[in-house]
Amino acid sequence: MPAPFDKTAFEPEPFGKFVLLQLIATGGMADIFVAQARRPHGRRRYLVIKRLRRELADDPCFVELFLHEAKVTALLNHPNIVPIYDFGRVDRHYFIAMPWVRGPTLAEIIATGATDRLFPSGLAWEVAIQALEALDYAHSLKDAKGRALGLVHRDISPGNLMIDAEGKVRLLDFGIASTRGRPHPSLGRGKLAYMSPEQCREEPVDKRSDLFAVGIVLWELLAGQSLFHRESAAATMVAVNEAPIPLLHELRPDIPKNLSGFIDHLLKRPLQHRPQDANLIGCLLRMAQPPARGQAWGEQLRSYIKAHSRNHPPQASRVRRPPQ
User: Fold this and answer.
1) Checking CA distances to 65, which of 53, 152, 236, 311 falls within 20 to 30 Å?
2) Are residues 15 and 130 both part of a single domain?
């Protein structure tokens, strides 16, 4: 297997039973590394290590939040959710080990659409259905006693959804997820431009908040531009709560009106007008999905990623902004 990173850019660092090979991202709470299991013999296996940042290792609030993510993600077993292999501590450093998933994030695809080509509307149906299947599973998760966990991701964004080399949509990063009995983590708010109006106002949230965020991501995937991002946090919050939402089929005439309508439904601000759960809207999307010509939609998505992923920029944290 070829190395999924630039070997020359980082000095390998032993870390417990792993070797950290490349720092690929730094967030507010953790550093993300490509790593390799330390095996004296056998096939190399690349994986991802998420390590709590050194300066936060002695902060009990951040440690608790990090371990909560690990424990919640360890319960998840679904083909559209990135699992974890292991979690624990090496010296003072807490970590989560995950598989290395090859493929672009939706943030990278959106950025490509802003500068080159827009995402095919036919494939967007498949992305939407698979993302909603992942969320329905997470929202329906029960504990060992059969009680609903009330899991809400709270950080659905283009950077936390990716499409792997096999054409599967993969949801990741449950770092600020809320559960029954822990409805509002004390740290971590998510990304303003991808929050529901109620989350933006710091009100209690349920699974419908995640559905609003999915609507934002799908809108941006097809439009190739940001929906609510503005130049300041205050302006972004106002946009989330008040800005008009353009209909996608008016921006892109090739987008079927029923697909545009589904996304518009996800983006309803009043909770009572929004879909009530991911399973219902996912089933409706599946029934309305146009028949595939030639390859099945999942195979077409795999072929698209194979053909275009090499053109995605390695980091795509920005998408085209609408005129102010």
Assistant:
1) 236
2) no
91-150 residue pLDDT tens: 989 999 999 988 899 998 888 765 567 899 889 999 999 999 999 999 999 888 888 989
- Residue type (1 letter), 216: I
Mean per-residue pLDDT, 292-302: 86
Residues 127 and 161: their CA atoms lie apart, in Å, by: 10
Residue 306: CA count within 13 A, CB half-sphere: 9
pLDDT digits over 27-55, tens only? 878 999 999 987 766 667 889 999 999 89
For 263, the domain range is 106-311
Q: In terms of domains, do 113 and 94 share one?
A: no
Does residue 246 sit in the same domain as residue 129? yes
At residue 253, what are phi and psi to the nearest 5 degrees?
A: -60, -15
* Cα–Cα distance for residue pair 314/209, rounded to 1 Å: 29
Mean pLDDT value of segment 244-269: 93
Q: Let me know if 155 is a catalytic residue.
A: yes
Who contacts 161 (Cβ-Cβ below 8 Å, separation ≥6)?
105, 106, 131, 169, 170, 171, 172, 217
CA gap 169, 161 in Å, rounded: 7
253 and 234 together in one domain = yes
Is there a domain that residue 319 lies in? no
CA 285 centroid distance within chain: 20
Which among 31, 91, 143, 155 is annotated as catalytic? 155
pLDDT at 190: 75
Please report, for the domain that includes residue 18, its CATH number.
Answer: 3.30.200.20
Residue 139: name the closest of 128, 127, 149 by CA: 149
Q: Which has the closest alpha carbon to 202: 193, 213, 189?
A: 189
Same domain as 160, residue 19? no
